[in-house]
Design brief:
Largest sheet: 8 strands, antiparallel
Keywords: Calcium, Disulfide bond, Metal-binding, Secreted, Signal
CATH architecture: Sandwich
Cofactor: Ca(2+)
Main location: secreted
Radius of gyration: 15 Å
Distance between the termini: 12 Å
Oligomer: single chain
Strand content: 35-45%
Order of helices and strands: EEEEEEEEEEEEEHEE
Organism: Crypturellus undulatus
Family: Belongs to the pentraxin family.
Helix content: under 10%
Length: 199
């Protein structure tokens, strides 16, 4: 249970990341990912990378620049414009996707953006490697310093279902309503390189 703790990525590297030691048992028709990040980076960086043998960017949550988040599903992406906000505050993001319509919902600090769509009818593979803080160009490899995350990540959750606004608020408080595939209150992980768990 990592409640009250954060993972600290102290500097740019191509070899420091967090390996999440869990993955779905079945291919996904729906998924949701939530996490909190705190950084003053203005260059692109990767927050959450879920890679399968057939697709490096099976699921990828990326911040390409201030004022934009991007979600990849099966290698195709959809972008959401967000207020730039102060760099001196943590941001909580949630993204959900459903195969039947391809609809993506995105929340920043509990506020929902307009729904968009990508990859209708796709099925997300389940034999995945899940990494925080780097973008996988192949499974747990091909990391680029220029995409590495520097700062703090916490409150990470993934579900095999969509979320409601109520679910998002519950995740922000670390008391998820639905049981996640993995989550911060029961988080199986391994740090690689220079990443530290801190209160």
């Amino acid at each position: 249970d990592l409640f009250g703790s954060v993972l600290v990525f102290p500097q740019e590297t191509n070899d420091s990341y967090v390996l999440v030691k869990a993955a779905p048992e079945q291919p996904l028709q729906n998924f949701s990912v939530c996490l909190r990040s705190y950084t003053d980076l203005t260059r692109p960086y990767s927050l959450f990378s879920y890679s399968t043998k057939s697709q490096d960017n099976e699921i990828l949550l990326l911040k390409p620049k201030p004022g934009e988040y991007r979600l990849y599903v099966g290698g195709k992406s959809v972008s959401f414009a967000v207020p730039k906000g102060s760099p001196m505050e943590a941001r909580h993001v949630c993204a959900t996707w459903e195969a039947t319509t391809g609809i993506v919902r995105f929340w920043l600090d509990g506020k929902a953006g307009p729904r968009k769509g990508v990859r209708k009818g796709y099925v997300v593979g389940n034999e995945a490697v899940v990494v925080l803080g780097q973008q996988q160009d192949s499974r747990t490899a091909g990391f680029a310093v220029g995409m590495s995350f520097v700062g703090e990540i916490s409150d990470v959750y993934m579900w095999d279902a969509g979320l409601s606004g109520e679910d998002v608020y519950a995740a922000m408080d670390n008391r998820p309503i639905e049981a996640p595939i993995f989550g911060w209150r029961n988080f199986p992980f391994e740090t690689k390189g220079e990443v530290y768990l801190k209160p």
